[in-house]
Amino acid sequence: MARKVVIVGAGPSGVLLAHYLLQRDQGYQVEIYERRNDPRSIPLSKSRTFPLVINQRGITALSNIKGLVEILKSVSIESTGSLNHEKNGKTQLIPRSQPIYILDRTQLIIMLLETLTGKYNSDRLKIYFENQCNVVDFETKTVKFSSVGNTDDTTNITVNYDLLIGADGARSQVREQFLSTDEFEVEQKYVPSAYKSIFLPANSVTSLKPGYIHTWRGSDGIAAILVHRTDSSLSGTINFPRENNLIANFSTTEEVSQFFNDQFPEIAQILPESEAEAFLNRPISSIITIRCNRYHHGDSVLLIGDAAHATSPSLGQGCNASFEDVAFFDKLLDEYSDDIAKAIAQFSLRRKPDAHALVELSDNAFPISNKLLFLEFFIRLRSAQIMHQLFPKYFSPSFLQLLSESTVPYSEILNIYKNWIAKVKRANEKFLRN
Ligand SMILES: Cc1cc2nc3c(=O)[nH]c(=O)nc-3n(C[C@H](O)[C@H](O)[C@H](O)COP(=O)(O)OP(=O)(O)OC[C@H]3O[C@@H](n4cnc5c(N)ncnc54)[C@H](O)[C@@H]3O)c2cc1C
After folding, report:
1. Is the CB of 39 under 6 A from ligand 1?
2. What whole-number distance in Å separates Cα of residue 282 and Cα of residue 50?
């Protein structure tokens, strides 16, 4: 009889996992439960989204499902480098030897959902939106959901499972249930910076070149990232320290416009009044990082993606690492001939060193506010890239190349760059203390 897999969360990791399990053979039936509404049914402009960079790790995981990489490329912007904009108008280019692909999180999920529902019918795949996971009973292997749609009466349903996947993100409810189990440890930390999304219209007259990630460093730890979308509009985030930030105190659009004039004049030039107002009203998002001592419980529950190891978005790795989780779990199912209990226990054991290393790398790769250290980072990066290009046998690729253009395990990268990470960590801690 087919095994019933219940996936909580239709984010990138949950939907890709459904692809992988259904591709294995007829032995799996999948039900996905997602708290939010179906992203295919609402306009992109109304969805809560931000740009995601998909690198070699993500591409490698997607490439195991026929057609996904081609579709991803067709709905993404291909980028060959980052342009760091300085206050004096000059730019520093960080080129890439391999392209990365940029698209909105919502677009990514839509493409994963459309391809999934295009391949499998309701005999093997069911997707329920606006259903929130509340409680898991590990003994009876059941999970309770309540309907959170625009209806007055809340419907509760109880669903049984053979395998339950918590793919429900950084604030995972499935992980929350692990807290009642023996010897489960989780560390949750707030990233020192928070962010607000920003969207700039397609008709903006701008000198910003498409195909690059544009970054600016303002004063006091404030930074901006902008990328083009396929319709030539721009989207990105303004990042700023979570505490004592001026952005939280804005009450008028004039203050917003003044802020952009002072900090990011190139963005101010293309910021329409309507977006200044939308920016003012948009909520500030905070980010948490998660480290757990295990990702499975018993013989039938597994956490993947951000639910298992949410990271700071500074290195653009969270989604890529979540895709790696899925491919890794699939390999374990191969290795253990679909013995779920063994595969999930091995997932905890073998994935943990890389997941913990990723959180450490993402927290401490970039200096928050030390300009000299940032310059050192840039010089180290460029010289490593050049030396590797000239003498690939003797010099390893740069830090960013290893992260984005290879599938070298994160724990190995942390080991290679441990001195740099320790140096930045000390500087960041000092900045945050003052
Ligand atoms: C500003 C920003 C920029 C980023 N940029 C990048 C980048 O460039 N590259 C990159 O690789 N990563 C990036 N990330 C990280 C990336 O977004 C995450 O790592 C990725 O989305 C994780 O996927 P996931 O499916 O595990 O979790 P999520 O994307 O969080 O999806 C979880 C899903 O579960 C649902 N859910 C939650 N709770 C419940 C519940 N109780 N019941 C039912 N459903 C529930 C949620 O609604 C959601 O749809 C960025 C993150 C941020 C915040």
Report:
1. no
2. 13
Q: Which domain holds residue 379?
A: 366-433
CATH of the domain at 161: 3.50.50.60
Ligand 1 centroid–CA 10 distance in Å is: 9
For the chain, the first-to-last Cα distance in angstroms comes to 61
Residues 332 and 394 in one domain: no
Q: Which atom of ligand 1 is nearest to the CA of 287?
A: 53
pLDDT, one tens digit per residue, over 45-101 is 666 778 999 999 999 999 999 999 999 999 999 999 999 998 888 898 888 889 999
Scan for tokens 């607000």, then name that residue. 196
Give the distance (Å) from ligand 1 centre to CA of residue 236. 16
| Distance in angstroms (rounded) separating the CA atoms of residues 305 and 314 | 16
120 and 257: one domain? no
Ligand 1, atom 29: closest residue by C-alpha: 11
In a domain? residue 88: no
What are the tens digits of pLDDT across the range 146-172?
998 765 666 899 999 999 999 999 999
Query: Sorting pLDDT into bands at 50, 70 and 90, what band is 142?
Result: very high
The CA distances from residue 248 to 136, 193, 194, 224, 389, in Å, are 37, 13, 10, 16, 45
Q: Are residues 266 and 376 in the same domain?
A: no
Atom of ligand 1 nearest to the CA of 134: 41
For residue 281, the CA-to-ligand 1 centroid distance in Å is: 22
Handedness of CA 17, 35, 53, 349 (dihedral sign): negative
**Residue range 349-369: average pLDDT?**
91
For residue 200, give the H/E element and its range: strand 193-200
Pair (421, 330) in one structural domain: no
The Cα–Cα gap between 372 and 7 comes to 46
The answer to whether residues 20 and 158 belong to one domain is yes
61 part of a folded domain: yes
Q: Which atom of ligand 1 is nearest to the CA of 305?
A: 26
Domain count, the chain: 3
Structure tokens, 287:
């980010």
Q: Are residues 214 and 158 in the same domain?
A: no
Ligand 1 pocket, 367 CB below 6 A?
no
